[in-house]
């Protein structure tokens, strides 16, 4: 009888304790934050609670525990008050987009809140670059868009390189301005009988994206010369010999060549 009375008293004491304690409430409202690559943002986690209870804040990113001090130093606790578990994400990258959960725990209860983070950035690289048709001076290209990273693609830029160029060079196209919905264009003013590689870059309001992988090499068709030789001169040689020299235009991709008769 005594033991039963003792246990009843313990139960009553616990119930009274729980009733007297103020419940823990997260006062921050669930939300979606829209951020641009390179910016920093504070994720709030404000709490109303019984001041006699100690709080423990734990943050998760896509249901994975965030380890502060690691992860490249992007995450930092900034909640200075006892009832604040705010964190800051510095220099946000595309990989930081996702669901963030703040879990708050005391010795008598626990609660959590989620924040969705949308990160806008330059477009990803276009894919499947194809040379559909090629002539002596033009090349028709097609491609597929890469991810727009939450900001619509506004324009494409086409670049080309040859064995004779100094890296990638911008080229002239038709249409002259390739809009964000355009997935084909024709490169003009190419040199005949030259091997070309092409690549495509996308742009949006945030900035310019990374270039695509190069297309397969494609050689423009041959044609008759359109530029006459330069610096033609003659002289020298033996009695029965006349040496004539000239320089061929760089468009022909050949070094100066002597001709003997």
UniProtKB/TrEMBL annotation:
<feature type="compositionally biased region" description="Polar residues">
    <location>
        <begin position="214"/>
        <end position="226"/>
    </location>
</feature>
<feature type="region of interest" description="Disordered">
    <location>
        <begin position="205"/>
        <end position="239"/>
    </location>
</feature>
<keyword id="KW-1015">Disulfide bond</keyword>
<feature type="domain" description="Ig-like">
    <location>
        <begin position="23"/>
        <end position="112"/>
    </location>
</feature>
<keyword id="KW-0677">Repeat</keyword>
<keyword id="KW-0472">Membrane</keyword>
<keyword id="KW-0732">Signal</keyword>
<dbReference type="InterPro" id="IPR003599">
    <property type="entry name" value="Ig_sub"/>
</dbReference>
<protein>
    <submittedName>
        <fullName>Contactin-4</fullName>
    </submittedName>
</protein>
<dbReference type="Pfam" id="PF00041">
    <property type="entry name" value="fn3"/>
</dbReference>
<dbReference type="InterPro" id="IPR003961">
    <property type="entry name" value="FN3_dom"/>
</dbReference>
<feature type="domain" description="Fibronectin type-III">
    <location>
        <begin position="125"/>
        <end position="223"/>
    </location>
</feature>
<keyword id="KW-0325">Glycoprotein</keyword>
<dbReference type="InterPro" id="IPR013783">
    <property type="entry name" value="Ig-like_fold"/>
</dbReference>
<keyword id="KW-0130">Cell adhesion</keyword>
<dbReference type="InterPro" id="IPR007110">
    <property type="entry name" value="Ig-like_dom"/>
</dbReference>
<keyword id="KW-0336">GPI-anchor</keyword>
<dbReference type="InterPro" id="IPR036116">
    <property type="entry name" value="FN3_sf"/>
</dbReference>
<dbReference type="Pfam" id="PF13927">
    <property type="entry name" value="Ig_3"/>
</dbReference>
<keyword id="KW-1003">Cell membrane</keyword>
<keyword id="KW-0449">Lipoprotein</keyword>
<keyword id="KW-0393">Immunoglobulin domain</keyword>
<dbReference type="InterPro" id="IPR036179">
    <property type="entry name" value="Ig-like_dom_sf"/>
</dbReference>
């Amino acid at each position: 009888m005594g033991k039963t009375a003792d246990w009843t008293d313990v139960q009553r004491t616990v119930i009274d304790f729980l009733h007297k304690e103020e419940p823990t409430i997260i006062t921050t409202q669930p939300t979606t934050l829209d951020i641009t690559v390179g910016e920093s943002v504070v994720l709030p986690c404000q709490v109303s609670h019984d001041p006699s209870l100690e709080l423990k804040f734990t943050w998760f990113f896509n249901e994975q525990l965030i380890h502060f001090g690691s992860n490249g130093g992007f995450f930092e606790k900034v909640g200075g008050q006892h009832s604040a578990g705010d964190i800051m994400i510095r220099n946000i990258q595309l990989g930081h987009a996702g669901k963030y959960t703040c879990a708050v725990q005391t010795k008598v209860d626990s609660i959590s809140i989620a924040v969705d983070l949308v990160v806008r950035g330059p477009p990803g690289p276009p894919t499947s670059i194809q040379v559909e048709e090629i002539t002596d001076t033009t090349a028709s290209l097609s491609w597929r868009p890469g991810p727009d990273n939450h900001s619509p693609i506004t324009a494409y830029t086409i670049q080309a390189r040859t064995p004779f160029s100094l890296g990638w060079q911008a080229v002239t196209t038709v249409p002259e301005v390739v809009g964000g919905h355009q997935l084909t264009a024709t490169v003009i003013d190419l040199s005949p009988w030259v091997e070309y590689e092409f690549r495509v870059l996308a742009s949006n309001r945030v900035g310019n994206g990374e270039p695509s992988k190069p297309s397969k090499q494609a050689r423009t068709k041959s044609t008759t010369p359109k530029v006459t030789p330069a610096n033609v001169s003659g002289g020298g040689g033996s009695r029965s010999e006349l040496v004539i020299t000239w320089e061929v235009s760089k468009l022909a991709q050949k070094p100066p060549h002597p001709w003997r008769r």
